Task: inverse folding
């Protein structure tokens, strides 16, 4: 699912990492020498670098949240469509494959972000899973009764 969505809508690029190692080394040397002016200059550079990194990280987090929403919506939509298609396919095994594949798409859309979903959304997802379980069970029983009526036996 992730690779298919990346083909049409790529995720935001990473922002790298924040490292002030070199500046911290210079700061340590300046503190050993007791150069107050240089110490303040280096501390200001570290603060500027940290501020710029935080701003970039905030922009990245906002764009990633947008990407995640779209990905979650697309995966859930494909999963629901796959389940509906699977219900109406005449071939039992192919239909069951579509239903299970759709369930996995929905699982992929919701599992990683489960803790960030609202309670009502979680409730509907669990109810949908329960209804899906009943539906698959009903189709299985219906299929086995049709086989009995035709005189076919499972070996």
Result:
């Amino acid at each position: 699912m992730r690779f298919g969505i990346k083909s049409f809508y790529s995720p935001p690029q990473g922002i790298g990492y924040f490292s002030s190692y070199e500046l911290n080394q210079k700061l340590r040397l300046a503190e050993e020498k007791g150069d107050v002016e240089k110490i303040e200059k280096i501390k200001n550079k570290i603060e500027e670098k940290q501020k710029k990194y935080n701003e970039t990280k905030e922009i990245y987090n906002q764009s990633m949240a947008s990407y995640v929403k779209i990905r979650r919506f697309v995966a859930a939509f494909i999963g629901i469509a796959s389940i509906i298609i699977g219900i109406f396919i005449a071939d039992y095994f192919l239909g069951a494959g579509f239903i299970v594949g759709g369930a996995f798409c929905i699982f992929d859309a919701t599992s990683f972000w489960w803790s960030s979903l609202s309670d009502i959304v979680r409730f509907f997802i669990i109810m949908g899973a329960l209804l899906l379980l009943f539906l698959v069970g009903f189709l299985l029983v219906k299929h086995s009764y049709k086989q009995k009526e035709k005189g076919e036996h499972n070996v």
Remarks:
- The chain has one domain: 2-150.
- The chain has a mean pLDDT of 80.
- Residues 2-150 form one domain.
- Residues 131 and 137 are 10 Å apart (CA to CA).
